[in-house]
Amino acid sequence: MSRRVCLVALVMTQALLGACATPTDGSKPPEQSPTIQTQSTPTYAGPGDAVLVNPPGGVQGIAFSPDGNTLASTGGDGGPVLLWDVATRRQLGAPLSGHTRAVVTVAFSPDGKTLASGGHDDTVRLWDVASHQQVGVPLNLPSGLITTVAFSPDGKTLATAGGKLDGTVRLWDIASRRQVGAPLAGPIEVVLSVAFSPDGKTLASAADNERTVRFWDVANRRQLGAPLAGHTSTVYSVAFSPDGRTLASASVDQTVRLWDVASRRQLGDPLTGHTESVTTVAFSPDGSTLASGGGDYTVRLWDLASRRQVGEPLAGHTSWVMSVAFSPDGKTLASASVDQTVRLWDLGGRLGG
Global pTM? Predict the structure, then answer.
């Protein structure tokens, strides 16, 4: 069976990058002037598919709803958050407007009813997905320049981290909209990524220029053991496997590394193939495949059993890939780029085949 993965839809041109967090030891994703891409090659879907244009910028954050029917994407330069119908590839209703600067991160609550967004206006906003209305007042963070948000698996807690040099992750009680205890405080660096373990007991974080990943006990808000050391440059992104046994980390050092969560040891050699910084990683829902994207404009799929790349890189973006996300059924991969597009890739049952 061919392992070629076909691009089924170039769907969304839109905005981000106002001020992407920049590692001090790596190159910066470039800003992009607005362009309109047409579906003029056989790689893309037919002319009936939408090519949607938004204000200047790129796309840094994407997230599928838990039912897989909706995709959220960030907007930059003060642009809104957009919701898309995955089946029709059309925008759903009005944009979620309220942020006053670039929005760089989005996350759905586990029940799909709420969307969290964070941006460079120093706020995190919660949105009612059904009505497209903001829920209450924004969460204002003293650390500012929000870089990452993540819901706990039970939906009761939101983790946020800011892009100023305070090195903290903050936990928020969704019901009361109040911060839970003191921040999780690491070295004084920009925290770029956070992820909850599937059981919600552990939080992983990665910070600019630190080259390590840290685990935190969510209940007592204390660091668990020593940091995971192995990367030789900034770690951009972390993700837990669905069973919670493995953590993946992506770095400016052009590698993806896998870690055993229980022992906090690296599993085998790094996954290599990207020729620029690796900015994002995501596990498939069945845990058999890892997707990564980066500054070489490509998305790559990795078979975790063999630790080998699956087929050729997914090529088509014309600038840095900043985020990847699998649909809940594992049949579609979304990738977001500074080139102002979100692309949907039909995995066609080829993963693990």
Answer: 0.85
CA angle, corner 192, sides to 191 and 194, nearest 5?
Answer: 85
Identity at 290, one-letter amino acid code? L
Identify the H or E element spanning 82. strand 82-85
Q: Which residues contact 199 (CB under 8 A, 6 or more apart)?
A: 153, 244
Which numeric CATH code is attached to 6-21+49-346? 2.130.10.10
Quote the tokens at residue 327. 């649909």
Whole-number Å distance between alpha carbons of 11 and 225? 43
Render 262-326 in DSSP notation, one character per residue: TTTEE-SSPEE--SS-EEEEEE-TTSSEEEEEETTS-EEEEETTTTEE-SS-B---SS-EEEEEE
Per-residue pLDDT tens over the stretch 26-80? 455 554 422 223 222 222 222 222 233 344 568 899 999 999 999 999 976 666 8
CB 333 within 8 A of CB 310: no
Find the radius of gyration of the CA atoms of the chain: 18
What's the residue count for the chain? Answer: 353
- State the Cα–Cα distance between residues 246 and 266, nearest whole angstrom: 10
